[in-house]
Design goal:
By secondary structure, this protein is an all-alpha fold. It has two domains: 1-61, no CATH class; 63-263, no CATH class. Helices cover 77% and strands 2% of the residues. The protein is built from nine helices and two strands. It has helices spanning 9-29, 34-61, 64-85, 93-117, 125-156, 158-166, 171-196, 204-211, 216-249, and strands spanning 88-89, 262-263. Strands 1-2 form a two-stranded antiparallel ribbon. The radius of gyration is 22 Å and the shape is globular.
Length: 265
C-alpha cells in the first residue's frame, strides 16, 4: 500500500474554501451564521495545530509522566463538558463525571493497548492518547444523557419514587427502573453507531488509516476493536455515574433528597 499524500499550506487553504460554501448558503438564506462559521473555522485550525505540536512533543519524549499529565488534562476537560451538556446537575456532579470517565477510560485503554493490541509499554503515547481521546469523547455524551434521564426522573417523577418509598420499598427498589432507563439512554449513541458502522458511515479511525495507506482489512480490524472498546467504556461510565447519582440523591434513611437537583439556568 502507498503512503499518505502530504498536505501543504496550499492544500489546506483550498480546503478552507469549502467553508465558504456554507457561508454562501448562510448569506443566501439569511441564516446569520457567517460570523459563527468564521470563528468556528479559525478555532478548528488553531486548536488542531496546537494539538499537533503538543502531540509531537509528547511522542518525542515518550515518558510515562508526560502521558499521565495529558491523560489528567483530557479527563478533567471531558468531565466538565459532560456536566455542562446536562440540563440538570447537583453539587459534586462534575467530580462524579470525572471519576466515571477516569475509571472507564483507564481500564479500557489499558485493556486495549496492553492486552488486545499488545503495546509495550501499554502507555506508549502513539496508541494510548488517541484511544483515550475516542473513549472520552463517546463516554462524556453517554454520561450527559444518563445524568439528564436519571435526574429528570427523580425531579419530575418525585411523587412516584416517594410513593414507592412510603409503601416500604428500599431506595434501590424505588430507583432501579429509572436508573436502568438512564443507563440505557446513555448507551444509545454507541449502539446506533455500531448498528450502521460500515453501511452508512466509515468511522474516522478507519478512514484515517486507509488514507494513510493501510490495508483496508487491517483498518477494519482496528475499527472493530475501537467499536467494542467504545461500547465497553460507554456502559462502564454510564453505570458508574448512575450509581454515584443514586448514592448522592438518597440518604441512609432511604429518603429522596430532591432539593439537591438544580436546573441549568
Amino acid at each position: 500500500m502507498s503512503s499518505a499524500i502530504a498536505l501543504g499550506p496550499g492544500e489546506l487553504a483550498l480546503a478552507a474554501a469549502l467553508v465558504l460554501v456554507a457561508g454562501a448558503v448562510s448569506l443566501g438564506l439569511r441564516l446569520g451564521l457567517e460570523r459563527k462559521l468564521a470563528v468556528a473555522a479559525v478555532r478548528t485550525v488553531v486548536q488542531l495545530l496546537l494539538v499537533g505540536y503538543v502531540l509531537t512533543w509528547v511522542f518525542s519524549l515518550d515518558r510515562l509522566w508526560v502521558v499521565a499529565l495529558v491523560f489528567a488534562a483530557m479527563v478533567v476537560t471531558a468531565g466538565r463538558a459532560a456536566v455542562t451538556r446536562s440540563s440538570r446537575r447537583y453539587r459534586g456532579a462534575a467530580t462524579h463525571a470525572l471519576v466515571a470517565l477516569a475509571l472507564s477510560g483507564l481500564v479500557t485503554t489499558v485493556t486495549v493497548t496492553g492486552a488486545v493490541i499488545g503495546v509495550d509499554p501499554w502507555w506508549r503515547p502513539q496508541y494510548a492518547i488517541p484511544l483515550l481521546g475516542m473513549i472520552l469523547g463517546n463516554s462524556l455524551t453517554g454520561i450527559s444523557l444518563c445524568l439528564d434521564s436519571l435526574l429528570a426522573a427523580l425531579d419530575e417523577g418525585r411523587d412516584l419514587v416517594e410513593t414507592e418509598l412510603a409503601l416500604g420499598a428500599t431506595r434501590w427498589e424505588a430507583v432501579r427502573e429509572p436508573l436502568a432507563e438512564a443507563v440505557r439512554r446513555g448507551m444509545i449513541p454507541i449502539l446506533n453507531a455500531m448498528t450502521v458502522v460500515g453501511l452508512v458511515s466509515l468511522p474516522g479511525m478507519m478512514t484515517g488509516q486507509i488514507l494513510a495507506g493501510a490495508d483496508p482489512l487491517d483498518a477494519v480490524k482496528y475499527q472493530i476493536v475501537v467499536m467494542f472498546m467504545l461500547a465497553a467504556a460507554s456502559a462502564m461510565s454510564a453505570i458508574v455515574v448512575a450509581l454515584l447519582v443514586y448514592r448522592r440523591m438518597f440518604n441512609p434513611r432511604h429518603q429522596l433528597e430532591r432539593e439537591r437537583i438544580r436546573r441549568r439556568p
